[in-house]
Records
---
Amino acid sequence: MEKINILLVDDHRIMLDGIESMLQNSQYNIVGLCANGEEAWTWINANEDKVNIVITDISMPLMNGIELCKKIKATYHHINVLMLSMYNSAAAVDEVLQAEADGFILKNASKVEFINALHKIQNGGTYFSQEIIPFLYKQIIAERKKEMELGVLTQREKEILEMIALEFTSDEIASKLFISKKTVDNHRTNMLQKTHCKSTIGLVKFAIRNGIVSS
Amino acid sequence: MEKINILLVDDHRIMLDGIESMLQNSQYNIVGLCANGEEAWTWINANEDKVNIVITDISMPLMNGIELCKKIKATYHHINVLMLSMYNSAAAVDEVLQAEADGFILKNASKVEFINALHKIQNGGTYFSQEIIPFLYKQIIAERKKEMELGVLTQREKEILEMIALEFTSDEIASKLFISKKTVDNHRTNMLQKTHCKSTIGLVKFAIRNGIVSS
DNA sequence: ATGCAAATAGGTATATGTACCCATATTTTT
DNA sequence: AAAAATATGGGTACATATACCTATTTGCAT
C-alpha cells in the first residue's frame, strides 16, 4: 500500500510527539514537522509534491492554522488539510469552515477517531468531530441572529450609529456627512424603534454587540 | 535509584501519550492516568501514599487543574504539583500562583525542560517556565491598569454607572437609590471628568470595557 | 484636630436627544 | 406600474444631560 505523506504543524512539541506516535506503524508517513504556519508555508512551497495531507493546529505564532489553510487551499488544490483545535469554540468552527479545511477534530480525539478522520480526508472526503456538530448549529444560529439583528438597520443607519458610538453628537455627524442635523435625528429615532432601544445608550450597546465599534 | 511516582491528569489523550513517552526509561514511574480533576481527586484519596508528583493540565471538564491543585495542597502536603498549560495567559499564571503549585510549564516545553522541572519539584523546589515570566509582568501591569481605570471611580459611582449603562435615566436612578436627581447628575459629571469621557456614551463603553455591564 | 475625599443637594443656563407631527425625492421591491 | 422602503428635511414640544456655580454632612487619615 502506498504511503500517505503528512506534514505536521503544531507549536507544541508534545502534541507533535503524540501524533507521531499515533501514526507509527500506519500507512501514514510523516515527512515534515513545523512549529508554525509561516514555517509550514515555506516548507510546502519547497516540497509541494511531497505532501498529501497537512495536519495543523489552529492557534500558533507568526501564522495560525486558519491562514495557513487558506493559503494552501488557494494554491495547492491537491493538498488536504485537517485542522486540530484544543477547544470547540464557535468562532473556531466558523473560521475553519471559512478556510475550507477538509476536516476539524479536537485534540482530545481518540486514536481511532484520528485515523478515521485521516482516512476520510485522504479519500477526498471531509471529517468533523461529533463534538463539533452542536457547536456548528449554535454558531449558525448565533450568526443568523447577529445578521438579523444587524439586518434591521440600513447602511446609512449603521454608518450613523458608528459615529454615535464614537461619541459624536448629531450636530457633528450632520456636519461630517453634509446633511441636516434633523436628518440625523430622524435616523436616530428610526434606529431606536427598529432596535427596541430606550435611548442612545441602548444603541451603543447594540453597536458594540454587533461589532460596529469596540468598547 | 528509587522511582518517583507520578499521577498524570489531562483530558487530552494525545497529551497523556506524549508525556508518557517522554518519561520512558527515566526515574519517573507513571502510576495513574486521569482525564479530569474529579477523577484525579478520587484517585488520590484512594492512593495518597502511592504518588509523589501530580502533573496536571489546567483546563479540564468537571474539575480543572487549579481546583485540583488547591485541594491537594490543602490536604496532602507531601504531594507536589506541576501545572501544565497550553497557553501562557496572564490569567492562568495568576491562578497557578494562587493555587500554590510547585511548578508551571507550557505544553510546548522541550523534554529537557520537562525533566528539569520534575527534578526541581521532586527535590522540594519550584520551576516556572522562562516563557511565563514576561507574562507575569504583563499580567501584573494589566491588572493594575484595569484596577487603576476602575479605581478612579468610587463604589457609589460604579453603582450609578451600572444603572446608567442599563439605560436608566437620572430620574429613575435617583428614585431607585432614594437620592436627588441632582446628586445623580453630579456623579455623572464627576465620572465624565475622571474617565475623560465626552458623554454618557463614553461612560457606557467604559462600563462595558471594565466588566461593570455586558453589551 | 485638621484636612481631605466622598456623598449629598441646590441653582441656572445651555446642549443634546427624543417624540410626535409633517413632506419630498430616490431607490428598491413587488 | 404601483407600492414600499430609504434618505432627506422641517416644526414643535418636551425630556434628558451637561457645565458651571454653590453648600453641608460624613467618615477617614495625617
---
Amino acid sequence: MNVSNAFPLRADAQRNLERILVAAREAFAEGGLDVGVEEIARRAGVGKATFFRRFPTKEALVHAVYEGFVVEVEEAVDRALQEDDEPLAALRAFLRHSMTTQAGNKAFFEAVAARFVPPVEMTDRVMEAVARVMAPAEAAGALREGVEAGDISTATKMLGAAIRPMEGLLLPEAAWDRYLDVVICGLSADQGPLPGVAADPCAMVREVSAKSV
Amino acid sequence: MNVSNAFPLRADAQRNLERILVAAREAFAEGGLDVGVEEIARRAGVGKATFFRRFPTKEALVHAVYEGFVVEVEEAVDRALQEDDEPLAALRAFLRHSMTTQAGNKAFFEAVAARFVPPVEMTDRVMEAVARVMAPAEAAGALREGVEAGDISTATKMLGAAIRPMEGLLLPEAAWDRYLDVVICGLSADQGPLPGVAADPCAMVREVSAKSV
DNA sequence: GCACAAGCGGACCGCCCGGTCCGTCTTTTC
DNA sequence: GAAAAGACGGACCGGGCGGTCCGCTTGTGC
C-alpha cells in the first residue's frame, strides 16, 4: 500500500502514512467502519494527531480505504475473465470473489451494503468493471434479457446480505454456494426477460452527492 | 399498540407507555435504530426519565418494537396464504410484503439486515411463520429440492439489500419486482436441487445469545 | 377530601469519539 | 553540525448519547 502525494512527505511521515492505511484496513476489516480513530492510530503505532495531520477527517480515511477496494474489484474482474469454460463462469467467479471479500472484511461489507455512500468516480469505476465481467455471459446469450450492470452490482449486495445474516455472524462457507446459485439461476437466460427497471447505482450516487452539497 | 403488564400501571403511565411505543416505531422507521432516546421521548411528549422508567434500557425498547414486527410478519403470512391462484403465489406475496416493510421502515430493515440480534423466541416465531408460507409451494413441488425455511428468511434479507442500495437511498418501487423475480426464479423447481447447506438462523441466534452471556 | 404511592421531567453524570493545540523531537539542508 | 522546517504525540476540548437523581405533581383508595 504505497501512496504518492504532490508535495512529497518527509521519509518518516510517508512511512507513518502507509502504516496508518494498513492498520485502518485491518481494523476496519475486523470491526467495521465505526472502529475509532484512536484505535487505528494505536495499531499503526502513531499518535492520533499524526493521523489527523494526514487525513483531514475520518471520512477521508474511509474513502482512501474504499479506493483500495475498488482496485481489488477491478483486479478480481481481470482474474475472473480468464475463466471461460462456460459463458457464466466469469460472472460466477466474480460474485464468488465478492462474497469472500465481504465475508472477510466487515468494512467492505458495510461499504457494499447500506452504510456508506462512495464518491461518484468510484461507483463509475466499479460499474465499468462489472460491465466487463458480465460481457462474456451477455455475448453468449446466457443472461436474461434486460440484465444490466446495475443488476450485477445489486447481486453483490444481495449476496453480502445472504452471508451476514446478523450482527456478529457469518454464514459458514459451505452455505455460500447455495445463495450464489439462487442468484445465478435467477439471472440466467432460461427465465425469460427480466421484469421491471434496473437499479442505476451511479445515478443514485450522483443524486445523493448533489443533495448533500 | 396496547401493552399489558402483570402489575397494572396507573392510567397516565399506561397511556405514556403506549405513546412511547408509537413514537419509537415512527422514529425508528424514519431514522433507523440509532435514533436517540431523547428524540423518541420528545416525540412521545414525555421526559427521558419517563422513558427509562418503562424500559430499563434502549435495547429493551428495540426488542419491544421488534416484537411488533414479528406479529406483523405472522399476519402477513396469514394474508399471503389466502392467495392461491398458483403454487408460488403465497410465497411471492409474502416476500413482496417484506420488501414493502423494509422499504418503509428503516428499523425493520436494519433488524432484518445485519445490525441487530433478535431474541431466540422471536426468531423461532418468524421461522415458523416462514415455514407456513412456503408450505403450499413446497407441497405443489414448486420449490427446488432442499429449500428450507432458513432460505426464505435469507431471501427476505437479500431483497432488503436489493432495495436499499446505500445509506439514505431507496430503490423506486418499479424496480422491486425485478429482484423479487430473480429470487423467486432462483428458488423454483425447474432449477434442480439446491446445492450446499441451508442457513439456520435459529441455531445462529442461539449461538450468539450463548456467546454474549 | 386527604394522604400517599406512583408518576413525572429537567438537570445532571460519565463515557466515548472526532477533532485540535502546543511543547518536543527528527529530518533535511547548507 | 547547526538551524529551520516539518513531524510527532499526549493532553485537551466539545458534543452527543445512554442512563440516573431528585424535587415536584397527579392519580387512587379509603
---
Amino acid sequence: MSNQGQGCCEPLSEAPLAKEQAEEMASVFKALGDPVRLRLFSMIASGPSGEVCVCDLTPAFDLSQPTISHHLKLLKQAGLVDSERRGTWVYYRARPETANRMAALLASVNGDRAPA
Amino acid sequence: MSNQGQGCCEPLSEAPLAKEQAEEMASVFKALGDPVRLRLFSMIASGPSGEVCVCDLTPAFDLSQPTISHHLKLLKQAGLVDSERRGTWVYYRARPETANRMAALLASVNGDRAPA
DNA sequence: AGGTTGTATAGACGTTTATCTATGCCATGG
DNA sequence: CCATGGCATAGATAAACGTCTATACAACCT
C-alpha cells in the first residue's frame, strides 16, 4: 500500500508530458522494452525473498553470462533494480518506487471522457 | 525455503512471466520507450475530446511529417492507440485497456517483502 | 599462493531503429 | 476532372542495440 505520490508528474489524461520528463520516463520504458530484460525484472520483482541471485537468473536464459550481466546493468541504470554483492554472489532487488511511478503514469489513461 | 545461508543456486522453478507474455508486453514497453512516441501518446491520451488530429501532433515536434506518421504507426501496432479517418483528417485516440494492463503489471511490484 | 568459480568489462559484429527525402494515396474544392 | 493539402508508404543511411568471445576482477577454498 505504499503509493507515496512523490509529486512526479501529472497524470497522462490531464496534461501532456514535457520534453524532459518524456525523455526520462521513456528511458525507463526502453529498459523494459526488451523481452529478456522484462523477464529478468519480473523474476527479480517476484523473488520470494525480495532479491534474486544472479546465479539464479543466468541459467534461466539461453544467453551467455555476459549478455545477462549487460541487461542487468541496463535495468540498474534505469533505476528499476539495485544490486548488492554478498560474498561471492551478487543479488538484485527491485526498486518499487520506479515501477510504481511508471504504473501511476499509465493508470491515469482513462477512456471515459467527453461523452458526446 | 530460503537459501540465504549458502546454497544459492537453486533454480527458479517457474518464471513469473512466461516467455511469450514477456515478448508481448515488452513490445508495448518498447513502443513507449522512445521520447517522441511517449510524448505523442501523452498528447493523445490527454486530448480534451478524447482524440487528437494528426495535424495537431505533427507541428508539435521538430521532426518531419513522415517521421511522426511512422511513430504513430508503431503506437498503433502496439495497441496503445487507434486511428480513424474523418474526411481529410485522421484522428488518434488512446486505448486505455492496453495502458491499464501495463499499469497493472508495474503496480504489482511492491516493496513490502521480507519484513526487516 | 594458487586454483576455481561467480560476475563484470571490452571489443567486435550483424541487426534493428530513427530519421530523412521522394513519392503515392485519399478527400476536398474549384 | 484536375489541383491542393493531409497523411501514409518506400527506400536510404547513420546510429543504437543485442549478442557473442575473450578477458579482467573479486571472493572463496584448499
---
Amino acid sequence: MCTYSKRMQVKPMNNEAADGCGELSVIDSLVQLSFVIQSILGRIGADHDLSIVQIRLLGILRDREPTMLQLARHLGLDKSSVTGLIDRAERRGLVERTATPNDRRGFNVRMTAAGRELVRTAGAEIERQIMDVAASLSAAERAQFAALATRLIGAPASGEP
Amino acid sequence: MCTYSKRMQVKPMNNEAADGCGELSVIDSLVQLSFVIQSILGRIGADHDLSIVQIRLLGILRDREPTMLQLARHLGLDKSSVTGLIDRAERRGLVERTATPNDRRGFNVRMTAAGRELVRTAGAEIERQIMDVAASLSAAERAQFAALATRLIGAPASGEP
DNA sequence: CCATTTAGTTTGTTATACAAACAATTTAGT
DNA sequence: ACTAAATTGTTTGTATAACAAACTAAATGG
C-alpha cells in the first residue's frame, strides 16, 4: 500500500521513492508537491535569514504599500503578529513604516532598496530551483501543468467570500 | 503585468483574482498552489491544535516507529527540535516513546490510539477540503494533473544524495 | 461632542527551531 | 579488555513566530 501514509511527508522514508510508489492520487500529489515547494522556499529563505512569511511579505510589498491591517489580512495573521514581523524586518532595514496621508494612526509599509535587492537575489534562486524541479517535464507538459494548476488555484478554497 | 509579484502571496490582494490574471507561469502556479494547500493543512491543523509539522509527524508515524534521529532526518529538523516536538505530542497523549531493543540510548516513537484517532478525523477533513479544490478539474484532468505532479515530485529537488 | 469603531502596539504565553554543551551508550582501535 | 571516538538524546540559552487580551490614540457617527 502506498497512498495515504505518504501524504504528510516531504520525502518518503526509504528510497523506494516516488517512482517505486507508482501514481499518486490527486490529493497525495498536491500535498507532497506543496511540501517540495515549501521546502525549497524554506531552504533558500534560510540561506538569507528569511522565514517563509517574510518571503511572502516581501513578495507582497514588491508592488504595494499596504497598511498593517491590510498586511495582516493578506498574510492571514493577527495584527499583533504583523507588528512583530514588521518590527524585525524594519530592524534589518528591509522595510519601513511611512505615514499615511489621511489617517494619523496608521502607516503604510514600504520595502526599502535593501529589501528589493534581497528579494531580487532570493527570488532568482527560488526561480532557479523550482525550474530544476519543473525540468522533469517537457515544455508542453509544463504548460499543461500550469494551466491545470491555475484552475486549481482559482477554486474558492472553502474560506472567505 | 501579472506574474512575478504574485508569486509569494496566498491570495491576490484585490479580487481581480486568479482568473483576472490569466495563465500563471509554471513557477508561479507551483508556488501559489503550495500556499493554497499549506493553508488548508494549517487551518485544519489549527482546528485540532496541530501545527503542520505535527501533522507531518503523525503522518510519518502512521506506519512506522522511527527513532528520534530518524524523525529528525525525515522532518528536516535538528534533533533537539524533535525532542521538543515529541515532548509536546507525548504530553498530549498522541505519541509515546518506547525502548528500542538493542540500544539503551535511543527510543522509538510510536503513535498512540488517541493519535490514530486524531489523524483519522483530521486526515478525512483534509482530504475533503483538498478534494473541493480538485473538484474544479474533471476526473480526467485530475488524473492528468496527478500524473504530472508525480513526476515533478520524483525530481531530486536539489538536496540530499 | 460624546460614544463607538478602527489602527496599531504592548504584554504575556506558547510553540518552534537552532546551536552548543552535556550525559549515557555504543563502537572501534589496538 | 580497555580506552578513544562516535552516536543518541536531552538540556540550556536564544530568537522567531503567533495569538489573545488589554491598551492608546485617532477617526467617525449620531
